[in-house]
Every structure is written in structure tokens, then in C-alpha cells.
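User: Before I run my own analysis I want an independent prediction to cross-check against. Here's the chain; please return only the C-alpha cells and, at the end, one sentence I can use as a sanity check.
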Amino acid sequence: MTAAYCRISGVDGSVIFLGIRRASADYNKARRSSLCGVSHRSPENYRKKSRLTQLPSRCSPLPMELRKDPITRSWVITGDDPGDARPESACRFCADAMASPQVVAMSPNAPGVSWSARSVVHPTPLYHIEGDPGRRGDGIYDRMHSVGAHEVLVENPRHDRHLWKANDEEIGHFLRLAAERILDLKRDPRIKYISLFKDYGKNAGQEFAHPTSQITATMFVPRRVLYELRAGREYFVAKERCVFCDIIQQEERQAQRVVEVRGDYIAMCPYAPRVPYETWIMPRNHEASFERTGLNRPGLRTNLAALLRRTLQRVRSITEDFHLVLHTSPSSLHPSKNLGYWKTIDEDYHWHIEILPVISSKAKSYTFKEVYYSPVSSETAVKQLLDARIDG
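Assistant: C-alpha cells:
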């Protein structure tokens, strides 16, 4: 397994399952047509054969499935992956690719090309929209099929136009498409959470050379997000305020860990970082769902695009490798009747983007998972990030 696997599938979470089978129309249409046209064993630089994946001939490979840890209540996707080391001769995501991927949705046209950003079915998806999850018991354990959705968001038709090199309009098209896909996938009553993430660099488990992010739709909320939801609700019950809003106000007042403020958005290093130079981007005004900002406020989207580009340039002045993940509210179209945090989610949750650089020279920061260790304080990190040379 690669780091990309761990990032999106080894997520920590618990699940509330609704056994209603109805898929997103856009995704289902593309996914059905992909079954006959996309190889499920031909990703770029991904799942290559290694000692871990080369199974002895006497073993029968087990298919990918979701298993729940009864102690941590984390869902993990696991199975035997035979891998495939066959390289592709050309990028499948470029605008002029000979073999076009199965397109789910795309943004408006850009000059000279037919699209600005588009979402396609992942060539080897970890989650599949078809079928029944078949959740079942195995003694004290729980398991189910990996039902959900897995898409690749092609950020730009140009192969070398990464987010830190693109202009703000191009990034804005990508952000709008991401918001559209999140909203569409939330319409499926089986789906509890939509994760958007980007792994860049060899040490971060980058999967494709083309500028891409990925989206997964799962029937459980990742444990990290559950922590935020529960903490946000407890804070709201005690003080009738959003804890994220209070953090932003204090950080702006103290001005010790703020990287940059641009319009209605702020980039800052958290008070208790998990890794060196960890940076968050957040709306300064309260908003629980990213998709509402991405679809309804084009002016704000432009400021967000600029701040995202500039922040990634700062991070890349320290290291080229990083993880980026969007935390937005779970689907509230079909709220749980049992979980209390769904009731006040619009008041107590606050969407944000987390950027976690991978610093190979400071590998200790990634070894103590029970207690995170960061050898660079946020206050020092901000000073170095502010000294970085950025464009625009």
C-alpha cells in the first residue's frame, strides 16, 4: 500500500449505515460506462509490485473490503493488492490524451480547451458506487464491502499547471467543480462524508504526475472529523459559540501564528501542530460547508484561490512534499437520528483546509502517533513561511 492508500482509506471513523440504494445520477452514469472501458490495474506510479504485494502462489488474494477496529472504532480498507508495474506511455488526464477517462463532470470551457477542470472516475477505485455494502459481523468484528465513490479531480488541462503555478481564475474553476461534486455526492442517502485530498511528492504518496486531487465518498465519517464535530458541539453547548470562530479571532488578535489574511480567508499555523509547518486555511466568517462557499460566492472563491496558491508556494519553499485535505461538514440532507452533532452542525462546525508538509529530515514528527511531535513551533514556522518568495 502507498501513502495515498493510508491517507484516504486508512481513515479513522465510525459508521452509521442507511441501507437505501440510490446513487448520484452523474456518477452512476459515468461509472457504469467505465466498467467496460477502464483497466482496474493500470494506475501511474501506484500499487507497484513489492515484497509486500507479491503474494506466494499458495495464497488466494483477498478482495478489498472495509474492516472496523473495535477498539479505536476506525474503519480501514484492506485486502491483497497484486499490483501492476506496467508504465503508461502518455498521461491519461491531459486535454489531448488519446484514451479519454470516464468523465463525471466538468467546469466551463477555458480558452483553447474544452474544459477548465473535470472530475473523472478513478482508474482503480477503492470505493465502488454499485452494490450493497453487506455489512456483517465476524465474531466481535465488523466488515463490509467498499461501497462509495472514488473520483479524480483534474485541476487543470495543462500537465505542468499545478495549483501553485495556476492563475486564480483557473484555481477558481477547480474549486467550483470540487463544490459541485461534493454537493452531488451528498445527495446519495448512503453517503455520510465526502473527503477531498491531494497528496503531492514522492514521500507523500503522489499517484499521478498530472495536477490532480481526489474525492472519496464513504458511508462513515472519518474519526478525525468526528473528533472535530464532537468538540465543536461540546464547545457550542457550553458557550453558544463556534470554537473555530473563536480560534480565528484570538489568532488575529495575537498575530503570532497568522501566515496571511486575504479578504474573508485566513491562513495560519495551528497552536498545536501535528507536523512542522502545518498550515490551515479557513473562512473568517462562519460557514460549515465548503460547497456553499464554492457555489454561491464567486468573489470569495477568487480570494480563496489566491490564498491557496500563495500558501502552497510558501509551503513548497520548505518542502515539495505535502498532504492537503479539505474538512467540510458531513451530509446533512439525510441526518442521523442518533448522533447529536448533526443537530447543530451549521452553528458549531467550520470548514477548513489542512496542509501537512512532509519533512523527511524531521521524520520523528511522524513516528509518535499517540502524541504528535513537531520539532518546529508554529511561531517559528510562520516567520519562515512569511520569508518565502511567492508570485502574485
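Sanity check: Residues 168-186 form the longest helix (19 residues).
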